[in-house]
Amino acid sequence: MIYQEDKSTVFSISPSLIDEFKPGIYPGHFVIAPCLNDSKPERLVIGASEHLMFVGGKKQPIRIVTPSYQIAKSIQDDFLDGQLVTTPNSHPGICWVQGEVTVSEFMKNHSDMYKQMQEVQRRWFIMLVQKTEDDYKKYKNSRVVTDQARFAVRALGVPMPEWMNVEEIGLNFNKCPACSTMNDPVNAICTGCHCVLNAEKYKTLTFAKAG
Asked: How far apart, in whole angstroms, are the C-alpha atoms of residue 82 and residue 94?
């Protein structure tokens, strides 16, 4: 069949695993490994997929083919839709080209696309680090710190923020029984919901009256 020769290639420099499932078509599961070095993009060659459809009251279904470029675009778009703080000009580095293309061919023959992919991911890293910084200052909670944000700090080469070590610090913190916020063991009340965590210590404290 002609569609068996239909190929497209997805390239990724995203530090996150890309694992996309498209129900109803076959093949419909697409995985691209995390890329930890943007000078060596990961790639996935995509062929056409197909699904069965009953048409015009016929007893036997017909096969409907989805071209490889539509599948490749869907993988890219659906992955980006699930990422944090993305914009059209700042998001994880992922793109696709028609044809079965090697990494070296992509970097040579599509150098503009490759450089653009690096730039939009760099902008996304900056936005991700800034959002994590803002959220951590606001909540002082380890749950706002993602592996992506830690990777972004190292990739950008910026000074290490306080929250880069929050995972180790957080191991010694206590979880609030009311809201699950991680609290320093010295806290008398939860920083998230103000639940009393240490009744004896709380009794010794004096609070200013509101107003």
From this structure: 13
Which DSSP state fits 27? S
Cβ density class 105-128: b for 16+ within 10 Å, e for less: ebbeebeeebeebeebbbebbebb
| pLDDT one-digit tens code per residue, 1-33 | 446 789 999 999 999 999 999 999 999 999 999
Each as own residue / partner, the long-range contacts of residues 183-191 (CB below 8 Å, 24 or more positions apart, any chain) are 191/139, 191/140, 191/141
- Shortest CA distance to 7 belongs to which of 62, 45, 60? 45
Q: Domain for residue 49, yes or no? A: yes
175 in a structural domain: no
Domain assignment of residue 135, yes or no: no
Q: Which of 6, 3, 8 is nearest to 64 (CA)?
A: 3
Q: What is the pLDDT of residues 72-115, one digit of tens each?
A: 999 999 999 999 899 999 999 999 999 999 999 999 999 999 99
